[in-house]
């Protein structure tokens, strides 16, 4: 967080830190889905 | 027709429609405790999604998120973050809790503690703490309702009258719909709230600034410090942000109702599949940040608790009464549905683990219903008292509730991963943690060296739990092993 807590550069008009958070919210399910598939595969 | 009558009329119609849906839906099933509290452990992935996702959209989302974006700026980002953190933890931990619940027939979080630590007293303590710390959460929703009513009345209804009407509406709603009814009204609620959120977060900024991002540019020009977290602020700085996200992420599942939602799942796997995708729902919360920032430019000058009115004030000022009424109706449902679910959950918890288990009371179904209703009223009255004495923003009310629920975390985690933990240790830890939280509320301390006070209390709680557990008699290995083997069993193992 300390490194991304900044205003510039703007991404699609959003402050960098805000865009960073939204990006992670969208990426999280993708990661979780991959993890889910891997764990399921082992079962 | 005058403006207040149109606005209140539209809002009341939306609420009445939801109650009607709840009445029809609530009639569908007979009520046994298992049905009443955990919907017969029968919910598949889709219904479970509605239940779990619906918990996120409350008045808090509607008013509080915009209010903090308006009043504090970047600290509001925490609201977007803790959900995904919670779901990642939930993915790994909640299937364990579900399996234990399934094996031992658990209904409440009190049952969970009573079973693992072989102590009805501990179950009762957990139930009482959960019950009491739900009060600020109810106050939050109550205060949201009051705000909406006051604004929709265009000043014709004063705050005192509005809050009393709000209590009456809550009681009417809970008594009329019940839990399964509330699940049905949740569908109506989510639809209207979603429409409201899109209006607030997309339409409003486009109307005033041409695009949702346009508002960011304006705010950046006037208050650049609003867009990033402060490193110098005494309370709401970067350390506070990180500690709060962690604390709320782990406390998320320990509200009175939360474990009941988990137990209502049909299988551990339907839980897992939900937790994979639930983070996406949080993107919608970002829209309320736009709404709050729009209000900051359009209706500047609000301060204190009135920041929570920010975005509704914009609607009242620039849009016709029926739009305001629709927003107020959506916002009211966003308060009423979670409140009724939580009220019934907390009352059910109290009846099960305090009245029935700790005092060995056995009443008929009818008497039980009466006691639950009396407790619902007691909670609503407690929330009203807190509203009178504790003037604070919606977000701060939510943080108090989270700090309290977080004190269950050490005992909850130790149930799975530390055999030596004892009932006395967990009880002592909770007592000390709660004492620190209450001190924080009374002394108005939100953070210690930037670390959220709830997390500080949690750390002390864990240390106390460790020390007291080690010096008290070790728990029966039979009980602990039975619990753990249920939790760590393979999905396929028949119970």
The rounded distance between the terminal residues' Cα atoms of chain A is 36 Å
- Low-confidence parts of chain A, pLDDT < 50 over ≥5 residues? none
Strand order of the largest sheet of chain B: 1-2
* Count of extended strands of chain B: 2
Description:
The complex is a heterodimer of chains A (43) and B (495). Chain A has 43 residues and is mostly helical. Chain A is built from one helix and no strands. The longest helix of chain A is centred in the last third of the chain and has 27 residues, at 16-42. The radius of gyration of chain A is 15 Å and the shape is elongated. The mean pLDDT of chain A is 77. Chain B is mainly alpha-helical and 495 residues long. Chain B has 22 helices and two strands. Chain B has helices at residues 3-26, 33-38, 45-54, 59-71, 78-104, 109-116, 120-133, 135-152, 159-209, 212-222, 238-251, 258-263, 268-277, 283-298, 310-318, 321-356, 365-389, 394-406, 409-417, 423-442, 453-471, 477-487; strands at residues 447-448, 451-452. In chain B, strand 1 (447-448) and strand 2 form a beta hairpin. The longest helix of chain B has 51 residues, at 159-209. In chain B, 59% of the residues are buried. The model of chain B has no long low-confidence stretch (mean pLDDT 83). Chain A binds chain B through residues 1-2, 5-7, 10, 12-15, 17-18, 21-22, 24-26, 28-29, 32-33, 35-36, 43, and chain B through 74, 77, 80-81, 84, 87-88, 91, 211-214, 216-217, 220, 224, 227-229, 231, 238, 241-242, 272-273, 275-280, 282-283, 286, 289, 490-492.
């Amino acid at each position: 967080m300390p490194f991304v807590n900044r205003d510039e550069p703007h991404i699609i008009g959003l402050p960098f830190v805000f865009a960073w958070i939204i990006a992670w919210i969208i990426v999280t399910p993708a990661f979780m889905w991959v993890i889910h598939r891997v764990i399921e595969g082992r079962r | 027709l005058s403006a207040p009558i149109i606005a209140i009329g539209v809002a009341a119609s939306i609420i009445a429609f939801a109650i009607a849906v709840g009445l029809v839906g609530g009639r569908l099933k007979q009520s046994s405790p298992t049905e009443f509290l955990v919907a017969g452990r029968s919910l598949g992935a889709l219904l479970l999604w509605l239940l779990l996702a619906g918990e996120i959209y409350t008045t808090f989302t509607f008013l509080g998120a915009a209010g903090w974006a308006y009043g504090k700026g970047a600290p509001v980002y925490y609201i977007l973050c803790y959900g995904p953190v919670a779901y990642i933890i939930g993915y790994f931990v909640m299937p364990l809790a579900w399996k234990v619940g399934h094996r031992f027939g658990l209904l409440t979080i009190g049952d969970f503690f009573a079973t693992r630590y072989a102590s009805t007293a501990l179950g009762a303590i957990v139930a009482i703490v959960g019950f009491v710390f739900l009060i600020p959460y109810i106050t939050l929703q109550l205060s949201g309702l009051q705000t909406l009513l006051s604004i929709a009345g265009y000043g014709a209804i004063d705050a005192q009258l509005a809050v009393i009407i709000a209590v009456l509406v809550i009681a009417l709603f809970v008594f009329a719909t019940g839990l399964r009814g509330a699940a049905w009204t949740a569908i109506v609620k989510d639809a209207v709230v979603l429409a409201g959120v899109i209006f607030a977060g997309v339409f409003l900024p486009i109307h005033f600034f041409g695009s949702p991002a346009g508002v960011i540019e304006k705010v950046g020009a006037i208050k650049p410090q609003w867009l990033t977290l402060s490193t110098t602020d005494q309370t709401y700085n970067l350390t506070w942000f990180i500690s709060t996200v962690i604390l709320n992420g782990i406390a998320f599942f320990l509200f009175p109702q939360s474990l009941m939602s988990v137990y209502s799942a049909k299988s551990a796997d339907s839980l897992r599949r939900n937790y994979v995708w639930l983070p996406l729902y949080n993107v919608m919360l970002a829209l309320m940040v736009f709404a709050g920032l729009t209000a900051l430019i359009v209706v500047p000058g609000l301060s204190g608790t009135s920041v929570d009115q920010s975005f509704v004030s914009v609607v009242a000022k620039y849009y016709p009464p029926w739009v305001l009424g629709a927003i107020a109706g959506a916002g009211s449902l966003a308060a009423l549905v979670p409140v009724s679910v939580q009220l019934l959950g907390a009352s059910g918890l109290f009846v099960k683990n305090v009245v029935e288990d700790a005092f060995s009371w056995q009443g008929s179904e009818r008497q039980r219903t009466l006691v639950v209703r009396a407790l619902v009223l007691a909670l609503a009255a407690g929330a009203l008292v807190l509203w009178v004495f504790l003037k604070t923003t919606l977000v701060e009310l939510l943080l108090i509730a989270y700090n309290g629920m977080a004190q269950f975390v050490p005992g909850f985690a130790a149930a799975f991963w530390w055999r030596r933990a004892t009932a006395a240790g967990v009880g002592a830890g909770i007592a000390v943690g709660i004492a620190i939280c209450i001190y924080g509320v009374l002394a108005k301390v939100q953070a210690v060296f930037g670390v959220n006070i709830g997390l500080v209390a949690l750390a002390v709680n864990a240390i106390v739990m460790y020390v007291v557990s080690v010096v008290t008699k070790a728990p029966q290995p039979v009980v602990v092993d039975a619990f753990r083997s249920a939790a760590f069993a393979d999905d396929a193992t028949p119970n």
